[in-house]
Amino acid sequence: MVHTILVTGSNGQLGKSLCALAEKDQKNQWVFCSRQDLDITNRENIEQIFVEHQPTHCINCAAFTNVRLAEKELDNARRINVDGVDNLIEACNNFDTTLVHLSTDYVFDGEKSSPYTEDDEVNPLNVYGKTKAAGEALVAQRAKKGYIVRSSWVYAEKHGQNFYRSILAKAKTGKQLEVINDQTGTPTSTSELAHYLLRLIGQSPSYGIYHFAGDKIQTWFSFAKDILAVHGLGVEVMPVATAKDELRRPLYSPLISIKPLNNEL
Ligand SMILES: NC(=O)c1ccc[n+]([C@@H]2O[C@H](COP(=O)([O-])OP(=O)(O)OC[C@H]3O[C@@H](n4cnc5c(N)ncnc54)[C@H](OP(=O)(O)O)[C@@H]3O)[C@@H](O)[C@H]2O)c1
Questions:
Q1: Residue 264 has pLDDT above 80, yes or no
Q2: What is the count of structural domains for the chain?
């Protein structure tokens, strides 16, 4: 069956990886909308795009993702991560579209000592996590056809601003690196996450929450060492503790799925 998949926030890390995947996908039609094409806080703009393209699926990659800035720009973060999601739910319900909404490990408090599953309770610590949890709750309550896909420590190797690329850039200066060793998560490649989203759409399991993350539990420090090893860079890396400031983060937030999909597209 041919799906028409609309991607919001297509200029972001995940949006660009979905774009690369779509170029090789012979089965589905794709519509990519950057913030300039479709602002999820603008209901008329959404309506116009849905009328034009009649999407069967909408993958929502649009989000306010700057964790530190969200503390200062609460209203803006809420407008995008909560109200914007509400607008998309409305359109998806009106057009019988399946919503695939991206969320984050930051909805958890990090107090667990084993990876978080889809069944664990959320308890966000900061503004970003709280707005993402509120967006999730709307999808769970209101979307007629809704998936919430949580991922963690997302990075694209080839584009965007992320940990992977900033470690490589800093390493190329040849200076010693200091990397945090007291936060633990599951780094996830956007390219693998993009493939997962396409599998989810193809396999259409029951609606609800799904976790997809890399299978290696790491600190930023161990992840940095892996990145340098893959690129054959022999730069020295020093483990350091998270700086003490007002921003609260989950110190332990690996994700695991108890609802795995099969590997077929
Ligand atoms: N990055 C991570 O480590 C991580 C981890 C777990 C989950 N996630 C989730 O995964 C999803 C994708 O993340 P990402 O890393 O690809 O984020 P990203 O690179 O920050 O991309 C987000 C995109 O959303 C756009 N956007 C912001 N406000 C918008 C609006 N009102 N209307 C339409 N587009 C808007 C941004 O455009 P501008 O650049 O023009 O603002 C940007 O292109 C998000 O839901 C995020 O919460 C991310």
A1: no
A2: 1
Query: Using one digit for the tens of pLDDT, what is the confidence trace for 200-257?
Result: 999 999 999 999 999 999 999 999 999 999 999 989 999 999 988 889 999 999 999 9
Identity of the amino acid at 105? D
Q: Which residues line the pocket of ligand 1, CB cutoff 6 A? A: 8-9, 11-15, 35, 38-41, 61-65, 80, 84, 102, 104, 132, 151-154, 160
Catalytic residue among 128, 147, 155, 252: 128
Q: What angle do CA 193, 84, 259 make, to 5 degrees?
A: 35
Ligand 1 binding pocket mutation candidate from 8, 10, 14 (most atoms within 8 A of CB): 14
In a domain, 87, yes or no: yes
Which structure tokens are listed for 153?
Answer: 């420590």
The answer to the question of residue 217 being in a domain is no
What does pTM read for this prediction?
A: 0.97
Residue 147 domain flag: yes
Is the CB of residue 102 less than 8 Å from the CB of residue 61? yes
Contact 44/87 with Cβ under 8 angstroms? no
Nearest CA to ligand 1 atom 5: 152
pLDDT digits (tens, 9 = 90+) for 22-78: 999 999 999 999 999 999 999 999 999 999 999 999 999 999 999 999 999 999 999
Structural domain includes residue 167: no
Domain residues for the domain of 105 are: 4-158+188-211
CATH code (residue 132):
3.40.50.720
Phi, psi of 50 (to 5 degrees): -65, -40
CA of 35 to the centre of ligand 1 (A): 10
Q: Distance between CA 34 and CA 264 in Å, rounded?
A: 29
210 is annotated as an active-site residue:
no
* Ligand 1 atom 21 nearest Cα: 12
